[in-house]
Amino acid sequence: MKTRAQTLVTRPQLSLTDGAFVLKGDLLIGTIDQLNTTQGLAQEIDLSRVGQFDTAGAWTVVKLERRLQKAGLSPQIVGASPLQHDLLDTLRRNMPTDDDISVTPLTVADRLEQLGRKTVAALREILAIIGFLGQVVATIVSLFRRPARVRWTAIVHHMQHVGLNAVPIVSLMAFLIGVVLAFQGAAQLRQFGAEVFVVDLIAISVLRELGILLTAIIVAGRSGSAFTAAIGSMKMREEIDAMRTLGLDPVEVLVAPRVIALILMLPVLGVIANFSGLIGGALMSWIELGVSPGVFQSRLVSNTGVWHFGVGLIKAPFFALIIGIVGCYEGLQVKGNAESLGHLTSISVVLSIFLVITADALFSIFFAILGV
Amino acid sequence: MAEDPIISVRGLVTRFGKHTVHQGLDLDVRRGEIIGIVGGSGTGKSVLLRAVVGLLKPAAGQITVFGESVRDTSAEDYRRLRKRWGVMFQDGALFSSLNVQQNVEAPMREQLNLSDETREALAAIKVRMVGLPDDALQKMPSELSGGMRKRAGFARAIALDPEIVFLDEPTAGLDPIGAAAFDALTAQLRRALGLTVFLVTHDLDSLHAICDRIAVLAEGRVLATGTVAQMQDVDHPWVQAYFKGPRARAALAQKETA
Q1: Which residue from A7, A56, A89 is facing B161, i.e. has the nearest CB?
Q2: Residues A145, A66: one domain?
Q3: Which chain A residue has the Cα nearest residue B32?
Q4: Average pLDDT of B161-176?
Q5: Is A359 an 8 Å CB contact of chain B?
Q6: Quick one: average pLDDT of B151-156?
Q7: Is A238 in the same domain as A344?
């Protein structure tokens, strides 16, 4: 074993001669798959001509020994050095038992059961999120009854991260949406000679729907995932448990400032998105249709009711609440490993975007019934 | 043991920014021994381990393992060298997305071209050899206790039947019974597999129970090497405090009564 040079190995061989299995060559983890198999029976296994020998080699010997024992023989190992004997003994003690657990294929009933379990789990998840929503809202309300407990520093910190730092990306996105709407709208409206209606098209779609919806989607991807990752990694390092033992409520310390910051900042981001969407649209209308900014402005003021703007902005705090609640909830679900952190972060983004769009659809129906 | 040392470190200097960790460190490890590396916090025990296995580039010095340089070597030679040692990190460092069996199979999968059946059987044997129950094979690292994670990390380190295993604080954070069992496991596997063990530890019981030699790190170099008994006579305040402190006396007394 001391002379185990890994560069020079000879191919192992197994042969059956004179009532004994004779092993030759190097029986190493890198070579044992080249070993030929032999059927047949013998009372002896001769290791005297084996060169290098490791666990994998010992495993093949013990495997052979087991096979012979099953055939009713009691084979002897001869020619093994004391070290090889020790290794063989270690292997015999640690060989897995032969009766492997076989995997039974899934039946239809099993699949139905899985479907049922997954459905129930999904319903429970929804209930849990609603429960968490209640807990957060209750915490926030009780916080404002005792303003001394509100963590202003944390709120301002998160406002900067979710609000101020998102301004460039949100305004660029909205500007481009305005440009695209004007461009596409112009191509269609020109056919009717109704170019000037492009102003109504841009104003209503940006102010009512697109400005706030796309802002919410960007914020969900930017800040919702950051909430999950930050709270999740605290959970992994047992910081959340440490807080609880110190009498700090994680919902009050971690969740409330984030949710409050989002509720305050998302409407602001929405207004910024509305402005830059209108600017983009006005610019493109001017270039493409010759609608001057002055005409754009007067038509905007005279034809677009202020309620279009109001409808868009009313939705903002609700979207913020959804993003904040889902992001923090998923973060608190993280278990001890990095795998679950990544998994839940992606769930958090997908779920909050899905819920934001669902809420937007419900708002549309609601406002249609109200007639605003 | 007249042959060349299996690991030889000469004039090692490592720095992090302005902070010098090792200042001309020399160390020889003989084939087949368990050498315990001890030293106070921040004396660079783990840094030494990382330098020897080539994870960290030293500022100066020569490190040879199996007579080959770890630093000035081609990528291909380093790959070949790496196959001949196994490393167990402090908390096992198991891959969190793989279960225990896949973790132990990982080095075999990467380095060798084994059939599925052979690989699975060998992984199961290695897991049993480190004293884990069979049902641990299918568990994810997050489902294991700290001690089990360390054992699984050990199983992965010996997956390729290496000649040297590097253990970074294997008994830290284990209860005394678990720590003693881990020591016994190390000694048993050393015997069975003919390993050389490079053991970074704080645990006086491990030093007494299984180490053939001890190297004390202090002031950026190896202060002394020798058996536990020889350490009693080293005239240095840290060594005296370490080997003659109340915990050391307890460990010694325990060894004598055992």
Answers
A1: A56
A2: no
A3: A2
A4: 85
A5: no
A6: 88
A7: yes
Highest mean pLDDT among A188-202, A246-260, B22-36: A246-260
Q: With beta carbons less than 8 A apart as the criterion, state whether A43 and B109 touch.
A: no
pLDDT greater than 60 at residue A5? no
**CB-CB: which of B96, B115, B194 is closest to A83?**
B194
- If one counts the domains in chain A, the total is 2
Instruction: Judge whether A68 lies within some domain.
Output: yes
The model's pLDDT over A282-302, given as tens digits with 9 standing for 90+, comes to 999 999 888 889 989 999 888
pLDDT digits (tens, 9 = 90+) for A126-155: 999 999 999 999 999 999 898 888 889 999
Query: At B102, which amino acid appears?
Result: Q
H helix or E strand, kind and range, residue B187: helix B176-193
Chain B residues lying within 8 Å of A235, measured CB to CB: none
Tell me the pLDDT of chain B averaged across its residues.
83
Sequence-distant (≥ 6) Cβ neighbours of residue B37 within 8 angstroms: B45, B48, B49, B198, B199, B200, B201, B214, B215, B217
Q: If pLDDT is split at 50, 70 and 90, which confidence band does B255 have?
A: low
Q: How many CB pairs under 8 A join A and B?
A: 70
| Residue A213, both tokens | 């919806």
A 64-123: CB under 8 A from B: 83, 86-87, 89-91, 93-96
* Count of C-beta atoms within a 10 Å radius of residue A266: 29
Inside any domain, residue A357: yes
Task: Say what the pTM is.
Answer: 0.67
- Last residue of a domain, which of A79, A94, A109? A94
- Cβ separation B114–A87 shorter than 8 A: no
* Residue A101 predicted with pLDDT over 70: no
Instruction: From chain A, pick out residues whose CB is under 8 angstroms from the CB of B103.
Output: none
Residue A30: its chain B contacts at CB < 8 A? 112
- β-bridge partners, B200: B37, B168
A336 touches chain B (CB under 8 A): yes
